[in-house]
Fold each of these.
Amino acid sequence: MRKQNIIGRTMATILMLMAGMAFVTPFLWMISASFKPEIDVFKYPIEWIPKHWNIVDNYREVWVGEHPFYVYYWNTVKVSVLTTLISLLFSSMAAFGFSNLEFKGRNALFVVVLMTFMIPSYSIIVPQFMIFKWLHLFDSHLGLILIGSFSALGTFMLRQFFLGLHKDYLDAAKMDGAGNARIFVRIAVPLVRPALATYAILRFIWTWNDYANPLIFLRSDSLATIQIGIQKFASESGAYYSLIMAGTVSAILPLIVIFVLGQKQVIEGIALGGVKG
Amino acid sequence: MNKTLAETGKQAQAAAVRRKRRRGDNLSGYLFIGPMLLGLTVLTIIPTIISLILSFTDWSFIAGLDKIKFTGIKNYSLLFHDRVFLISLKNNLVLLLVVPIQLIISLVLAVVIDKLVYFKSFFKVIFFMPYISSIVAVAIVFQLLFHPSYGPVNQFLKALGVKNPPIWLADVHYALPSVMIIMVWVGIGFSLIVYMAALQSIPKDLYESADIDGAGTWTRFTKITFPLVSPTTFFLLVTGFISTFKSFDIIKVLTEGRPAYSTSVITYYLYTTAFENLKTGYASSMAWLLFGFVMLITLFQLYGQKKWVNY
């Protein structure tokens, strides 16, 4: 019986590995192509391990060439980090307010926040664009950061966790004369730290990968983020596929690293949000 | 369940503190939610209202506010005679198919990975990788993989003896299915993770008693697993439908709606109408129809949940 079990499991694992190949192969092809000289990219049968290496030239051209990736990288890091921090601050404040403070109109205001969540972002890009023009936020990183920071999602997600805090714990602090700000900073935030980490990682990934907002709200090449950068690169450098692949590898790599390091938080966050719905 | 006297006293005291604090809470409550509410008002609520108003006008935002002409529901009636819009809407409806396909594959994968496999978390990471990767990068890679003449996919098909392999994204008939394949590929990881969490919450003794009754794998799947994950299926179906209506990036990078609008979707047509043809009013009416479709799916969720979900 046990032996049969082991055989069955091994078979299933092999089967899954084959299914997994469908998911890994495009990535492997991308990495391999980014290491090759241009003429070898489409060679068939595919040279998974390149016969001729061109790795240094490819990546140098991408990083400091005509469309310098270091500029796009710096822009993306800046926008993603600031968006994540601001979003984390305001979302957790609002979440704490909606879960642990009692004030007039709380439920009505929460319904308003809920409703903004249902509006598809593409339904409001035109007026957002106009407002940004009027406020001189168009073609600036500040505008992009603000768009990413104010999303109802973080408020919902974190509110769930603040609701899970023990009321007695917070009341005890109040009896000791602590103000709400102090309770928030000293007690509530430290208690939901894992949830904050999850949200921060997700927000960072979403901002890093965001394509539509930089496309619409930025114009200058010097402000472009990576997603805009690789698309420009791909459409303007014509048939230099090895270079384009070096660009996509550069765009994806940091996220894979963050994901592998924080996979527990990411997977738990997705699972939790999903199951709770 | 017996409450001790001390605990009751503590609770009464706490309630008193809560009452006393309530007035103070009012102000600090607004301070806590204020920044988020202000941001949402300026960046979401006001734009929503402006968008609704503009949808009844004939206007271009480069023309200046004094050039606004109110035209009633003309934009909306034009939309239903606009061939490109109707094709885009049809494509959006076809794209809905992505969701059930994705769910079937990911449920099967989730069941196998959950029960029958070594290195569980390794597989979770593998299948989730496309979801983490930027859609721009993924789209560019697939463009090359499916390249009509040099792409590895067609080279492979030719090597297998297929004389005229499809030209995928360049062919009117194959373009949309190709986009759908990529969308399924990208989205499986998300549903897989959510399904695995749902599977973990099914009580083990249900399966044990099914074993005692001699139920086979298939019976266990149809009688236990499938009904018990139905709330998750429903959630994934609804959020999946909504997200297909919002897909824009993949179309913009992969095909720009080509060939012959065969892959155009509402968001993409909205984008070109607003930012390339500069028809602000017309684009706004499209924006509100898009909003309408998403609301419809949300309402379907609210009513359908009670009817079709077996808890």
Note: Chain B has 14 helices and two strands.
Amino acid sequence: MNRTVMIIDDSLFMRKIMRGILVDLGYSVAAEASSGIEAMKNLHTYHPDIILLDIILPDSNGLDLLESIVAACPDSKVVVCSSIGQQLVMQKSLDMGAKAFIQKPFTPEKIAEVLEGLGN
Amino acid sequence: MDMSPYRDLFVSEAHSHLSAFSELLVQLENAPDDSAAINELFRHAHSLKGMGATMGFEQIVGIAHLMENQLSRIRTGEFRLLPALTDLLLEGGDTLSRLVSLIESGSDAFENTAGLAERLAAFDPATASDGRLHTQTPPVPEDTVQETTSQEKVADSHVFRHSDSFKSVRIKTETLDHLVNITGELITHRHRLAESVRLADVATSTSSLNQLAALLRDLRDEVFKARMLPFSTIAERFPRLVRDLARKQGKEVNFQLEGKEIELDRGILEEIADPIVHILRNAVDHGLEPADDRVTAGKPFCGTISLTVRRDKDHLEIVITDDGRGMDPERLKQKAVEKGLITDEQAARMSSPEAYQLVCAPGFSTAVTVTDISGRGVGMDAVHEAVRSLAGVLTIQSQMGQGSSFIMRMPIAISIIHALMVQCGPFEMAFPLNVVTHTAELKRSAIRGTDRCPTIFLDGAELPFKSLRRLFDLPEEYSGMQGELLPAVICEVAGIPTAFSVDRVIGQQEIFVRPLRSPLSHLHGVSGATITGDGRVLFVADVNALA
């Protein structure tokens, strides 16, 4: 069965691009969320295998959200996305339980590589 | 990866980030320590950078990155947001908007952003001027101040530029679904009606017809809803506009905007944006005194301009108020006399509210010095004209030393109106019901006044009297005359009840008003046309022009 993914990003543009790439790679996009509140709601409904989390969201600090997600759904693998120049945040998110990170701008190849590297 | 399918989404999202960015930045100037707002600004710049990078738009990434860097320094408390940096960030936002528009239009034109990038990168709070007023002129090209006596400006000042920013609108899916449902039902009932007509079944035909009428009412309501947009659609740029104007003039303005969530017909929004801008420009330029004068007069250093939108049943009220110097009715009268607009006698009889209205007279406001702030060839006469074309009324209030208010009141929807249908000779005409106060039967013998300015006594008051026959160059005597009695429609024209005699009052009807295109748009006394059930074209009366 395809692995399910939830995309958390406040930008519709980014979500659509990410969705396109994931579908091409054979993943199933179970849900999208544009805010922390929406993310937590969807998390309980869909229990996605993988969560792509954009670290800057309008209603929450991305790291706080990461903490809530890891606590609520320890089985989901969280991959943090952010722009270049955020290395400190990246390191911190790995310490807090994120499994990998993707730097924006991303390519389909980079996403494939990171997601495959997560194992099952 | 082919990014072209995502281009439209990029453009619309980038534009909304940029307009939110500028709006927030202007707000922040009044509360520079609002850390939530600074985070929000940072987020907009950051998102733009990420989106630009994904699409491969390097120029956007470069500028957004530099803006983000400066905001990051403010976020970490390195320094506070200074007016000089606000200027620079606004310029950055404007540049990004232009770059996004270039992408939108598919143009390969190039905008050189190297200078801006350099200034953004080199910004240093220690060397930057503190941006206090009087000390710095922002980098906006300044037109030379010049005298103008140009008459052609008066001639074409009646038409505001029509913006094309409303060419596409977003409609809620829910509204579209309703429209689809109604269309489906209309089709069903149309077939039912055709079938019952074929069978000559009057009872079923009547019931189908009633259903069709009800569905059409629903359809009208839904279409109306779909046309509504919040006032914020046009108002978002006003705080920025007022800020930039004030800074250019070396004035400080506290701009208050109320009621931006109120929804209006997009036709009204389209027409009213430029008049509002004009009044705001006037308020900053002429209304508010220079800061020194204000302090001498015991007023706060910083002037206040407020823009308030209110809804009152079927009417809309837009009020622009400043706490500036106010207008001097005597000076206005004197100027109008000098320009030959009124006589000395008329001036002597004129009340203050009437004197304020003089600023709306064609030729009154255009022949003064033109600065790049106000006076771009559109005067208050064009504002007045625009409000009138929306079946609205412009009222001006002022108090010397206290400030002025410009009040625009107009119906909320313009395309479908209730009208009173009247007959005059071979013509039928529609009087918009919002200007009609009542109908009456006048006695011919009660007509007074001079032949040029007849009046009539009605309910103890003397009203101006107009014969529609005379206005249409029809003979005053006709076969169907009802002896001594003249049917008349009483309308309110600029606050004054005026009687229009007609041959016959037909009745009330809901009509869809279509605008007249050239050459019919030059017809005097009509504001539009409508098509009747039997296919005839009727004109809609413009009572202001007829009176």
Note: Confidence is low (pLDDT under 50) at residues 130-164, 366-377 of chain B.
Amino acid sequence: MAAEVFTLADLTRIVLEAAGGGESVDWGDEKVLDTEFEALGYESLALLETGGRIEREYGISLDDEALSDMPTPRALIETVNAHLSAAARTV
Amino acid sequence: MSGAAAVFTGMGVAAPNGLGADHWWAATCGGTSGIGRLTRFDPSGYPSKLAGQVPGFVAGDHLPSRLLPQTDRMTRMALAAADWALADAGIDPAALPAFDMGVVTASSSGGFEFGQEELRKLWSQGASHVSAYQSFAWFYAVNSGQISIRNGMKGPAGVVVSDQAGGLDALAQARRLIRRGTALIVAGAVDASLCPWGWVAQQTSGRLSTSEEPQGAYLPFDAGACGYVPGEGGALLIMESAQAARRRGARVYGELAGYGATMDPAPGLGRPPALRRAAQVALDDAGVTAGEVDAVFADAAASADLDEVEAEAIGALFGPHGVPVTAPKTMTGRLYSGAAPLDVAGALLAIRDQLIPPTVHTRARPAYRLDLVARQPRPAAVRTVLVLARGHGGFNSAAVIRAAGQEDAARP
């Protein structure tokens, strides 16, 4: 079975629901991928809440400590996709 | 008496009869009540069905989207009220040293609506569905924390929890901090727990009105007193040392000149209730005599036993019909911690406008021998006001609010 792919658009939707967005972040600009979450104004709880929503929606389990240390959106997207690929292989 | 005088230089209000200090004060002086049937949820299955609900508060109009997933309704209103209070005081917090500014709020319920929603998810969907923000969004201290973070205030912060009395206890704590050297404190309270879980909790006091008639449900000091109507909202006030306020040329509404707090004796001991003593301590602290008090904002519990205690305390201090007494909270319901800061805002505007706001719907029992300011606001020379607040479980607090310009008069 082909793995589902988690994209910047998916992350954007979930982050905005979980922790809001607003003036200071342009999620439509791909530069956001390599901007640190801290610089984007998302602290560890925002990442935990975002991670929790990803886990529920995609049926995967992320490590809480790894989540709160996740440096950038790109790192989070890659981590989620690695979990999705692993899940697809075991089906 | 020691240290700097603490003055009020700004106010922000969210009340059932008006959002924003101007709207609320106009409604209050006009006798406009905000009490009605609960609309936030269906109250038909509960004994009490009326409440004072803050109208027209849309959080997204006042706060950035980042704050919405992590805040209860009471915190959203508190953040907006704090913004308005700072603007009213002409303070830009970004321009002041972070450690010179602090926050003290009171709370009686915490973020009940937020908590209810997350607990519902916990038991219906499981722990993984509970918001990470539940970790703080329902705490008593959350309003102080969020106000300090939003405004970059790194000075002393805290919360006091003593039900309705807490609204005055917070202002007193702010005065303590100012005397210890913090230039500015955001102080006051906004409470809101008009959700099914909060509603059930409030019923347990046995003191809520079950009347469904908005004009007859909350009648303090009336022969028909039948308990109180709860409400949501309150006020945040900017308190500064008189010196700091003077230095920056601030408009000063008035001073927190005196404060007293007591606990009632345990039931069955036969000792007298302690409200009168709290008021006497506050007068002594302010260095004023009863004869100098121009108005009393009453706690107004609207249960015959508690009304009698309050009427006796006022009579003992001021004599029969000895001072104008008012309870504008008859237009809002009792706002728990939010009630007394709102009454203090009312006292400050009564001093500004030389006008005592009215008590609506109620007719004082003649036996209480109170000079109740009923139905119409009363023009009067108002320089000194006593505010009373009692909390469930025996808390009594009293504050003396005095016109600006006398901050140093009573200093020894």
Note: Chain B is about 30% helix and 20% strand.
